Every structure is written in structure tokens, then in C-alpha cells.
Amino acid sequence: METKLGKQTIKFSMPPVITASAAVGGAKEGEGPLGADFDMIVSDDKMGKKSWDLAEGAFQSAAIELTLKKAKLKNNDIDYVLSGDLQNQCVASHYGLRETGIPFLGLYGACSTMVESMSLAAALVGAGYANHAVCLTSSHFCSAEKQFRNPLEYGGQRTPTSQWTVTGSGAAVISSSGTGPRVTHITTGRIVDKGITDINNMGAAMAPAAIDTISAHFRDTGREPDYYDLILTGDLGVIGSDILCDLIVNEGYDIKSRHNDCGKMIYYIKEQDVHAGGSGCGCCASVLCGHIMKEMKSGRYKRVLVAATGALMNSLTVQQGESIPAISHAVAIEM
Amino acid sequence: METKLGKQTIKFSMPPVITASAAVGGAKEGEGPLGADFDMIVSDDKMGKKSWDLAEGAFQSAAIELTLKKAKLKNNDIDYVLSGDLQNQCVASHYGLRETGIPFLGLYGACSTMVESMSLAAALVGAGYANHAVCLTSSHFCSAEKQFRNPLEYGGQRTPTSQWTVTGSGAAVISSSGTGPRVTHITTGRIVDKGITDINNMGAAMAPAAIDTISAHFRDTGREPDYYDLILTGDLGVIGSDILCDLIVNEGYDIKSRHNDCGKMIYYIKEQDVHAGGSGCGCCASVLCGHIMKEMKSGRYKRVLVAATGALMNSLTVQQGESIPAISHAVAIEM
After folding, report:
1. What is the pLDDT of residues B134-149, one digit of tens each?
2. 3-state secondary structure A188-209
3. pLDDT at residue B1, rounded to an integer
4. DSSP letter at A148?
5. Closest Cα to residue B115, out of B251, B6, B262, B245?
6. With contacts defined as CB-CB under 8 Å, which chain B residues touch A109?
7. Strand B326-334 to B259-261 pairing
8. Are residues A304 and A240 in the same domain?
9. What is the pLDDT of residues A47-60, one digit of tens each?
10. Domain span holding position B210
């Protein structure tokens, strides 16, 4: 039987293996510091489709295709695909994956979706329900910006705290056997709402959720921050990362020397003019499935804790004056 | 270890138990034929909140509270809550559940969400990851109508094929032990898109997904339709149900004598002027968690196959001329 640790963590007795992964990015992501770690860079942000919305689905199609090719598996070999995205009713996933014929579990965790997806995929594989499950997600700057903020043509000025939604997708195959980094623990988050109402300051809204889940992970497992070579958040960006590192000290954990954030890593923050950094489901997904997996396989990192965070509002609730609930899910990935 | 049957079905060696459930409905649902089977009928469709959007969250809060009361459990006893809804970015679930403090897994399966939620909750409990998981979902006529079609004040005329979104929520506790109906099998659906583009004919868009999943369930398990006392779909309504029963014969299964649909059961179709019947995540959730659970406990039904269906478009993709992908997930519930 599996071991439940504390309130929120599962420790796998037979840790599922990440046997393959792939990352697809847009032109701006290709020009960033991790450009070489993407499997595919797409210069046309419509990817030959008639809308950005459909293009985002095509990023997911490309990510799953590349990943399965690396894993030497066909659609028919996959037991489940778990995906979601930021578009209303998660349509990037539905249109992007509708031709795969793989049993599909739709998720919504905003920018925490990649880790929610890995958690459930690992749970399904770890329990013996599946041999292979694919987890993936995506985001697209243009589809997100018009849906959550303003039409691009409006040219609205961005605040200093705003983040740049990554155009990209990342996919991973989680398998019951094989070689690769293993998902050893999953820590499932709770919804946390500290009253932030500024839709242009996602980092501040999401940092308290990261504090809650990362602390729960340490409490549940008895591990200390120095167990990990890297404690990686999804897209807190510059401001949210500072809040996380400063305030998690109050919970008894100093993570500053080991922390990094996909939203800080994916762009040259100043040169690429992205204000507080990258964001979006595709940020964590593409950095994790591209750069981080490469660094784990090369031996640079042996133990990584990934805590992705999501802001769970929509544009209507914010206009109605509601605060922004957030969530963070974490997985421990070890060689 | 668990048994994977065929491509899409899991058979649980230790079937998880539905130890409690509750249904909450609006005034129109209370006046329907199943009115007496709801645990709570709310006459104020804003439930004291300032918007319909927040009211839908309050339906979820009420449903989980009533269910946990029946199960004699507290929030702190629950390992996971799995929920989603039709509002953009699933905000009814996030605002409705943000104060529970329960580890939360957000799902998006449109109107298939209740069964997706039960499937994953049963999988988590069946594997020993959790003792108790709550699955729930909701819908609200007013929040759905303005988001997917027209503002209510516009008074748009409804087509004969249109369905009436149920205002309501249903919640169930799935536990590793206890008494009650058991989830013996889950069959996870694939995305099916047969090219339907009419947003006012959801039944036609979703019926092919129901055919695909129900056929897969019979194929995977070797069961025949007469194994079940009831084969229940979520919200195909009058038109979608006819399509399902007519076309599944081509797959070799005649289900007509055992089939019913929550969207046909919840309203007096003609007298309540609901055209093709009820729809929405809350339709399947409230009928299943109220009426069907009562009928199973009373002995009327011993074996029920529930296949909920969801339409996976959004209003933008339909305006862009895209067809409507759909999905159906099924669970076998047995006494």
C-alpha cells in the first residue's frame, strides 16, 4: 500500500518514472536564456492556425507528439492523458488533443496545472491503474492577454508587477518502469486567499499558496530545504519569489539559497522587457519538461521539489471586486 | 493490484463506498418530479450573494456541508476534494470551497465533471491514497446562460433543441470503508467530435461521446446492457437520449429499455417549459446524489451505470466556427 504522510503528501512505494518529456516554445521563449533547451521553437505565434486560441492547442499537439516520439510510444500505448489550460473551458487542451483518441482527464489548476497533472498521473501509474500517462499543459501570451486583460491591439500599459504569459507547452510521459527521474512524493495544495485583488500582481496572490504547500511538504515528509538541490516554483516571478522566500522563514524554513522560479529563468527579465517575469501554465511546463529534465539527466540536479502555483479567479470575479484565491501543488522529483 | 480491463476501464479489487451524498437545488428544480429527493431547495437564486456567479459557489458550499454532516465527518477528515464547474476558470468551485482547507484538485469536464470527479476520487481511495474524498460540482441557470449564450435580460428565444441549465449542486463522500453503494468500475472517456456546431443542440454534440464510452464499458468488462437495472446519462436531454439509444445499436448494444437521462428526469419537460430537458454539471450531480442514491439504498436499483457527458467548447470557439468536441466518463455503482 502507499504511504500517506501527514495531511497532504503521498509517498510512492514504487515511484513512477518520467521516461520522456518535451518542451515547445514561441519566438520570445526561444530568445531567452533557456532557448537551447526547447525541443521546438515556433516563430509563427499562430502556428499556421486561424486564431491564437487554436494555435495554443497546436502547441499541445506538438508537445505530446514530440514526447511520445522520444518515449518510442504511440497514442495507443498511453492509458491516460491529463491536461488543462488557461483558456475559458480549457479549450486549448480539448482542441489540441481531440484527435489523439487517448482517454482524457481534464484539469483546471490555472498555472499549477502541470504539477496537478503530474501528481494525478503519478498517482494513477503508482497505483497500477496505468502503465503510461501523459501530463501536459500550455499557455499563449496572445490568447491569455485578450481573455484576462485587454485586447492586444489596445496596447495597454503594463504595470511593473505584471508578468508575461509564456507562449509554450510542455509534456511528460510518466511510466511504471523505465529510466529517468522519478516522482517520489506528491503534495496536494489547499486553496489559499489572502485578499489580494490586483490582477496585475499574480505573484503576490500566489506566493501564500506556495508557502502553504512547500511548508506542508517539509512538515509531512520531515525533510528540510537542504535535502533538495533545487526548490522550483512555477511562475511567481520576481515579486512573488521574494515574498515566498521572505515569508516562508516564518514557518521555520529558509529556502532562499536553493530557490528558483521558472518565471525568472525563462526570460532575460530586463532585456526582454517582461517586468516581473514569465507566467502561465506553459511557463512551468516548458521549463520543467525542457531545461530541468535535461539538468537532472546530466547530473546537475539530483533532487528537485517543484511547486507550481495557480491563481483561481477569472476576469469577471476580479471586476466584481472579489479577491484572488490561489493554490500550489508540489511534486518531489529525484534521480 | 488493480485490474485494468481493456483500454479504458479500471475494476477495483476493493470497491470504494459512497458513504454519503447530498443534493441542493433551486426553486424550479424543487417544483420538478424529483423535488422531494433534494436535501435543500433554495428559493432565492442568488442565495443571499451579490451575484449569480458567487451564488453558484454557495450551492457547492451547501452541498459539501450537508454531505459531510450526513457522513458525520469534518473538513479535516477529508483527504481530497475534487470539483469543477462551467464558469470560466471554474470559479464557482474555487470561491465555494476556498474556506474548507481541504486539499483541492480542480477538474474541468464540462457536464461530465461529476463522473470524472467520482472516477478520480474512487481511484485515489481505491489505491489507498485516501480514506475519504469528496466529489462535487454545480451549475446555475443564470450564470451559465449569460456566459455561454445571452444576458437573461435580452430575453432571447430558445430553440426547440435547447436545454435548461440546472441550478443546483450535488456532492458525495467516497470512502475506503463503510456502508452504501460501491463504485466498482470506472471507464474514462476519449474526446469525440462529430462536427456538430449548434450551441443550442448540446444533446446531439454529446451523444456520440456517450456511445463511445458506454460501448467501451461493455467491451472492456464483457457485461451486457441487461446487467444493469439502469443506464443513466447525465444531460443528453430528450434529443440526445434518442440519438444515443438509436445509434448505440450499431455497436451491438440495445440499451433503450434500461436507459434514462438526468436531464429528462429532473423537470416536467412540457409543463416546466424546458424544451429538450435539463443540462449542466449540476443536473447529473444533483439527480445522482439525491434521487438515484435514495433509490439504490431503498433497493429499487442494485446496479447502475452512470455515463455523464460534457461539451468541451467555449462560446468563442463556437463563434469562430469550430465544432464541439465532447467527452463522456462512466462509473458502475453497485449495492
Report:
1. 999 999 999 999 999 8
2. CCCCECCCCCCCCCHHHHHHHH
3. 55
4. H
5. B262
6. 105-106
7. unpaired
8. yes
9. 999 999 999 999 99
10. 182-334
